[in-house]
Amino acid sequence: MILNVGCGGRPHDKNYYYGDVRIDIEEFPNVTHLMDAHNLPEEWSEMFSHVECDTALEHVDKPIQVLREMTRVLAPGGTMTIIVPNVMFWRRIVRNYKCQLAMLNALDSEIFPDHKAAWDLIEFNNFIKQVPGLKIESVDYLDWQPEFKRASNKLIVKLLDRYMPKMFRHVEIKYNLKKDEKK
């Protein structure tokens, strides 16, 4: 069985019908269980072969607690996919630089209203190490925007997108994890 944590249900939510069990704190037609991921049911322990968490972990109050819960309900040898925004995406860095003065005068809730955490590659690796028995198998970079939205007539944008290292060119990072087999 597959668990989708923070599945959402709005038109822009990419994987909202993925999984046998789909949980969220908001009620949508696709949500099978209305609940908080900080405390998953005890009877779900080691029940799922795969756990999916697509751009939801950065919204929770205690990400480490949610990660521990997702690991607890994951069967030994099971896989987990976590997708988070890429804090190193060059357009995000430029936007933040341009808005620096406005950001100094704005409230945090006006800038990032619902993001409570963010990680780069090193921070996420250290974050995962806090949960014994879980390891990163691979890392992929994703672009959720269609090509026509990313396209630009500006030469500098085309050059940056083509020659910049991968870690700066993509909107999201996908971590593929695996839980150790029981000994």
Written overview of the protein:
- With 183 residues, the chain is of the alpha/beta class.
- The chain has a domain at 2-87 and 115-144 and 171-179: Vaccinia Virus protein VP39 (Rossmann fold).
- It is built from 8 helices and 7 strands; from the N terminus they run ββββαβααααβαααβ.
- It has helices at residues 63-73, 90-98, 100-105, 108-111, 121-128, 147-150, 155-163, 166-169, and strands at 2-5, 21-24, 33-34, 48-54, 74-85, 134-142, 172-179.
- The protein has a 7-stranded mixed sheet.
- The longest helix has 11 residues, at 63-73.
- It is globular.
- The two termini are 22 Å apart.
CATH superfamily of the domain at 2-87 and 115-144 and 171-179: Vaccinia Virus protein VP39
Q: Give the H and E element order.
A: EEEEHEHHHHEHHHE
Count of beta strands: 7
Number of helices: 8
Termini Cα gap: 22 Å
Looking across the biggest beta sheet, what order are the strands in? Answer: 3-2-1-4-5-7-6
Strand content: 25-35%
Molecular shape: globular
CATH class of the domain at 2-87 and 115-144 and 171-179: Alpha Beta
CATH architecture of the domain at 2-87 and 115-144 and 171-179: 3-Layer(aba) Sandwich
Give me the secondary-structure category: alpha/beta
List low-pLDDT spans: none
Q: What is the CATH topology assignment of the domain at 2-87 and 115-144 and 171-179?
A: Rossmann fold
Major sheet size, sense and barrel closure: 7 strands, mixed
Q: Measured on Cα atoms, how large is the radius of gyration?
A: 18 Å
Helix share, percent = 25-40%
